[in-house]
Amino acid sequence: MMISKETFDSNWNKGIEDYKKDCTYPFLDLESNNSWSKVADEWENIIRAGSATNYNAAIAQDEPGDEYSYEMGYFKAFKVICYSAKEDSDSLVMPAMFIARHFIELTLKNLIFNLSIIFGKPMQIGQKNTHDIKKLCDELREIALQYNLTPFADHSFSKIIYQMGDISPKSDEYRYPTKNNGEWNFQDADATHLINLMALNHNMNYFYSLTQSLLLLINDSSDSIYAETAYGNAYIIEFIKIVINSKFKDNKVKDKIKEIIGTHKLPLEKKNMLFKESNDGMEIDYGNEDLFTIVQQEGRFYLKTDGLIE
What is the pLDDT of residue 63? Predict the structure, then answer.
């Protein structure tokens, strides 16, 4: 059936008016004369401060160590979504699940990294990054069993991570309705097709309280484990992360370390970076403080600290 352009335009304009009420959600307390069918002059530029100062947000990063802000942001966004879901759970389940899963992934990686430093557990250099939260959970559980971190070895902690990992193995299932081959992500009759967002909320609260309290104890308080150590310097932590994600070659450890400092413009003095060869590998110190040792085993490189907990 053919319709006129005039009818097309008329129907579209009517639709714009009909959808204005959806645009007020959840800003129901704003003045009713706000127009939601066009962008006012004040809001044309999203990177300019606006008169609604509560909504101005700084995102520039001028120093490292912002993992906590990312994790908190995703956790709070998840909580806001869950609270609003009581009114429209079917449309909010996808972003709620995606954000919850991403929060779990960020936190697990952060924990594994920091716990490896404080217990002196070797970290493989150049290891392929993973989004598999079940593998990350297993890696954290291994650390928990080795160093008697009972809450992380408990079934209650890993259960929700495994549930999320089973539902969304690649983290794409809640971002896109179809796979690369065009198949629906949730067409399998045997797959999970119901999510209770309140149950998810309670599990996320449990996960959050255990993980963030430990991360605060490690690196973000005046009496933290990192306090008065080299690892209390956010640039040292950033340096270690870059080293772990780099590629090393035989007999080139010293050159690679110097290259990393220069290339990434870290505010660390090359002259203060000291190298000592030992039976274990290449020990790297900064000034008078031990940072880590680069160890090579079976063609692979590992970064190992001396640990901070006896």
Answer: 66
Long-range residue pairs from 193-198, CB within 8 A, at least 24 positions apart, any chain: 195/93, 195/96, 195/97, 195/167, 197/82, 197/85, 197/89, 197/92, 197/93, 197/96, 198/82
Angle at which helices 253-263 and 234-244 pack, to 10 degrees?
Answer: 120
Give alpha helix (H) positions in the chain: 5-23, 67-119, 133-146, 150-153, 155-167, 197-219, 234-244, 253-263
| Residue where the block lists tokens 């009909």 | 18
Sign of CA dihedral 129, 130, 131, 133: negative
**How far apart (Å, rounded) are the C-alpha atoms in residues 7 and 201?**
47
Which residue is associated with the tokens 């939601």?
36
∠ CA 208-211-212, nearest 5°, is 75
CB 171 within 8 A of CB 101: yes
Q: Which residues contact 241 (CB under 8 A, 6 or more apart)?
A: 113
How confident is the prediction for the chain on average, in pLDDT?
87
DSSP-derived secondary structure letter, 220 = S
> What gap in Å lies between CA 117 and CA 305, rounded to an integer?
6
Alpha-carbon gap, residue 21 to 7, rounded angstroms = 23
Strand partners for 294: 282, 303
Q: Are strands 273-277 and 289-297 parallel, antiparallel or unpaired?
A: unpaired
Least confident span in 18-22, 66-70, 139-143, 208-212: 66-70
Tokens coding 58: 């700084």
Q: In what order do the strands lie in the sheet with 282-286?
A: 123-124, 300-304, 289-297, 282-286, 273-277
Structure tokens at 159: 């259960």
Token pair recorded at residue 203: 């599990």
Question: What pLDDT is recorded for position 136?
Answer: 96
The predicted model scores a pTM of: 0.89
